[in-house]
Amino acid sequence: MSAWLTLLALIPLTLAINPGVKVKLTEKGLEYGREIGMASLQKKLKTIKVPDLSGSAKVAPIGKVTYSLTGMQIVNLGLPKSVLGLVPGTGVNLSIGNAFLNLHGNWRVRYLKFIKDSGSFDLGIKGLTITTSIAIKSDETGRPSVSSINCVTSLGSATIKFHGGASWLYNLFSSYIDKALRNSLQKKICPLVADAVTDMNPHLKTLNVLAKVDKYAEIEYSMVESPAISKSCIDLGLKGEFYNVGAHQEPPFSATPFSLPPQISNMLYIGISSFTTNSAGFVYNKAGALSLYVTDGMIPPSSPIRLNTRTFGAFIPQIAKRFPGLMMKLLVKTVQEPIITFEPNNVTLQATGTVTAYAIQPNTTLSPLFVLNMEASVSARVYVTGVKLAGAMTLNKIQMTLGKSYVGDFQVKSLDNIFLMVLKVAVIPKVNARLEKGYPLPSLGKMNLVNTQLQVLKGYILIGTDVLFTG
Ligand SMILES: *[C@@H]1O[C@H](CO)[C@@H](O)[C@H](O)[C@H]1NC(C)=O
Ligand SMILES: *[C@@H]1O[C@H](CO)[C@@H](O)[C@H](O)[C@H]1NC(C)=O
Ligand SMILES: *[C@@H]1O[C@H](CO)[C@@H](O)[C@H](O)[C@H]1NC(C)=O
User: Fold this and answer.
1) d(CA 351, CA 377)
2) Ligand 2 atom 3: the closest Cα is on which residue?
């Protein structure tokens, strides 16, 4: 019954959103998580506070003995062996074996009404085992959260060494002490294990579910479905969608299902679908960020082609005639979102835009000369830098048609080389300067990526990486 309720709670409110980004945590990644987790569990268990104990026992031949144990402290605790395994459908289970602890405390006894005795003792426990399952869910903010369930501990053999007092007493009541302490310790361990597990949640809460990109955009990385746990990995589906800062508007396209290949040699795999990159195009185009004024100052001085009415007048005599001796300016902008396509080892971008040419009058007024419609095909290289995805573009080809002319008819084709040059030297470098800064990947806290590889596959980019947490 409660399992069903848990399952129901895991179903996100908005059904059937395909993730734009997928994250796979492999056994290698879990192993790294185990190392970090065990260090913190060990610290936690060293804080076990054993409350003072007292009791009485009938001990032949002296009759009733009352005893009390006080000031008990863990002096040593080791968790030399632990295994973290995946439990398909649920989460992971943690088995700790061969653990040991040593505890020091004081004892005091009273018997035959008035006889008192006291001293100290050392208790050693060996062969301590702890097993617990860790459930992995999605919290209300779309971040993963973990909790410990079904924790069981068993304490192996114990040895007690007494110091001080009358030694003949030791044998008489050591078995009582052994039992009382075992009971007490047994009750303490699982709650601390549960604490150590929930202590991971603040860390998981650092997942950048809304990653700030720049003044135009942010990326949503919240989970859109519950974690899927199989025999070999944990799969997370993240929204992976760019939005305008503040005003979230859905693009006219949606994510299509994709699945990551069965690679497991890295700790973590991140698949970024073309939906994610195309949602970026949608946002930047809508924000008017994909537009640029090109002036003559942006053309290298060595170029014989200048942005002036003399250069353009050579191809369109009307311009030379009506606007002699003026500098020009071009407005290059997209008119719809660029379409990015991922094919194996090949990233291409198709941009549809316009180029508007102006003559700059001596009083700085811009006189429009013509508007061209342009289709540009661009190749891109993508790479990971820090915890960001970056890129660089090269222009493949452009196709232009006349949109509107203020200077009569002319052969658009004759301007191909000029515009190819302008895009290559003035526009692409600006775009690349932005792409070089990168876009945040999903990340937790102070996460660094090492041994990172990137592959372009059909419909998505696959990043395989190991992670290293620093602090
Ligand atoms: C996980 O739990 C299952 C069932 O409780 C058990 O059979 C399995 O051995 C456990 N795996 C690990 C690694 O502890
Ligand atoms: C890359 O893909 C584009 C469009 O799908 C195609 O035109 C181009 O030839 C491809 N390039 C390579 C090197 O495969
Ligand atoms: C600027 O100069 C142009 C051409 O001489 C003229 O048509 C236009 O009215 C002038 N604009 C202003 C604001 O003076």
Assistant:
1) 7
2) 348
